[in-house]
Amino acid sequence: xxxxxxxxxxxxxxxxxxxxxxxxxxxxxxxxxxxxxxxxxxxxxxxxxxxxxxxxxxxxxxxxxxxxxxxxxxxxxxxxxxxxxxxxxxxxxxxxxxxxxxxxxxxxxxxxxxxxxxxxxxxxxxxxxxxxxxxxxxxxxxxxxxxxxxxxxxxxxxxxxxxxxxxxxxxxxxxxxxxxxxxxxxxxxxxxxxxxxxxxxxxxxxxxxxxxxxxxxxxxxxxxxxxxxxxxxxxxxxxxxxxxxxxxxxxxxxxxxxxxxxxxxxxxxxxxxxxxxxxxxxxxxxxxxxxxxxxxxxxxxxxxxxxxxxxxxxxxxxxxxxxxxxxxxxxxxxxxxxxxxxxxxxxxxxxxxxxxxxxxxxxxxxxxxxxxxxxxxxxxxxxxxxxxxxxxxxxxxxxxxxxxxxxxxxxxxxxxxxxxxxxxxxxxxxxxxxxxxxxxxxxxxxxxxxxxxxxxxxxxxxxxxxxxxxxxxxxxxxxxxxxxxxxxxxxxxxxxxxxxxxxxxxxxxxxxxxxxxxxxxxxxxxxxxxxxxxxxxxxxxxxxxxxxxxxxxxxxxxxxxxxxxxxxxxxxxxxxxxxxxxxxxxxxxxxxxxxxxxxxxxxxxxxxxxxxxxxxxxxxxxxxxxxxxxxxxxxxxxxxxxxxxxxxxxxxxxxxxxxxxxxxxxxxxxxxxxxxxxxxxxxxxxxxxxxxxxxxxxxxxxxxxxxxxxxxxxxxxxxxxxxxxxxxxxxxxxxxxxxxxxxxxxxxxxxxxxxxxxxxxxxxxxxxxxxxxxxxxxxxxxxxxx
Length: 786
Fold this sequence. Notes:
about 775 residues; alpha+beta; five-stranded mixed barrel; five-stranded mixed β-barrel; 16 helices; about 25% strand; hydrolase
């Protein structure tokens, strides 16, 4: 029943109460419907909501209005302990520290819990949460939907041998730094000094070291091949498939023509990195012969039919969901599916018939997609190409493989891409220039060098065709009114946009926000700094202002790509979200076996989306930590060497510097910078000397000396060799907006004379110079937004 007051507009309190009563479900439309507001009333409603957002009463996220930093209804959480009443307490597994401390969730235990919902301390579980009215430090209550992972007493670390034959374990987990474990000689197995081992905790003591027993030797830490094992074990990434899943994979047989369209004569080709082990997407383009689409093209994108082999509820399906995605390290891949599936039956190798789910897209002369259709096909790849090889052929340097393909296959692909670029440019997605580095290993597993692969049109061609296919999948499933898992990316928060505006002011760069926020506004700034010395700085700060992409059963669009609807369809070999989309398409279009079950609800998909969003972040963190450890290992014998780099992070602890040649990140502690005290200026992303006005800012090019390398932690520590910039007199100097007056006098907090001023300066300097907390040596990285 609609609740519009008899006299005028609903009050602020009524609107806030409605938002609180429906966390994560309320937008402008829902509020208007609840209070019976007409279209003419919405201007006033939006004004009130802006006021509520400005004063911090509500916050907008995913195009829904919440209380500030509110949790969504479904949360993946870690159970961290119990309260004084013995009830379990949990915190979200993923939480942005910029939103403050992670909220606590009190878990309610029913009298008769359902199977799989009994959780304990140390477990990770999927929870349904609700806001409480209690003021006891636990603003949420939760109910366990499913236990994802049970806590383990196993710990990973480095074995250091004692003369008596026993030893100690030094944990690799930074959270356990300093908590060494005693290993008696009978419990040490065959572990050697320096081995990476896993142990079981066997007892704890009221005093002294706790004891452990060696469970597994994972190899010597002196070998880079053991480095990725640290991340795999630290983040509990499953790397052994269940015997039933392996049995299902071995029993699987190649797809046949039964129930499929025959596309074996369509000359589809795969274009991948040169070291790719699986090839799950193929492309083809041809001129559209339809006279109503003169100048247009037909683009085919075929994706390996993983759903044919991985059926809902099967052992393969359970293992794939637990992994969520494949994880890629420089020396190995931890796949989402067994090799029999990913590298054999679902790898689109040339000349072999393979099952695929394909989309046929009609592209107009203006580059826009006019229509699309999905097909379950049997295809046969015409060639396996890598990006550089395909690009060289288009640039006039074909080889024996690409020569015969140039006119009939490659040129039509590039012509279609030229059209698609027109629509992309008109859409104007976020255009960040952030080169990615790649570690190349020697045959023995040691680091050879670090490179920045060249970004080619061949990369962009595949990327744009995959984006088109992903959009087509989302549109088709919405048209058929089927639930799906979207790939979503929220717009930046008001706070982050404000911080970006304040930073850009320091560079005299305008950033005006009028109306709805669009990627075009960020691209305008990026275009202004193209070719300038501070171009990398601005790209980095713009990236940090963005939200992180995730999976969701609720569609709130993809801000970075500037798309209203988007789903991952193009890589079901390595992403569980894509497998769900394939199953949904099979069900929607009646394409045969392997369809999404009819009882798969939006609520179930919301749970899966929350789970695989966490596994994706887990993979990203593990990959990043492994890269840091490998490079720290690579540089460990170059202590004392000098390097050039850029300041990649500025915090109260000091400066993070990214080296130009390797991309390695390391810390310069604030206490080691110069001979004066430095204040942190958040708006400038800078440290500024209180006496001289010397400034070190994010993006500055600096020379550093390597003074310490810790391969196990992936940490580097540098010494600063470069002088900073000096702020002219009269300009703001420190993080609190003071101005330099005259020598030793003035109204700023570092000026003045007398006992009181002296005490204030002394207290402030003590605060500024407090020892930095232990750090991993990593900068605050940019977030994935695609």
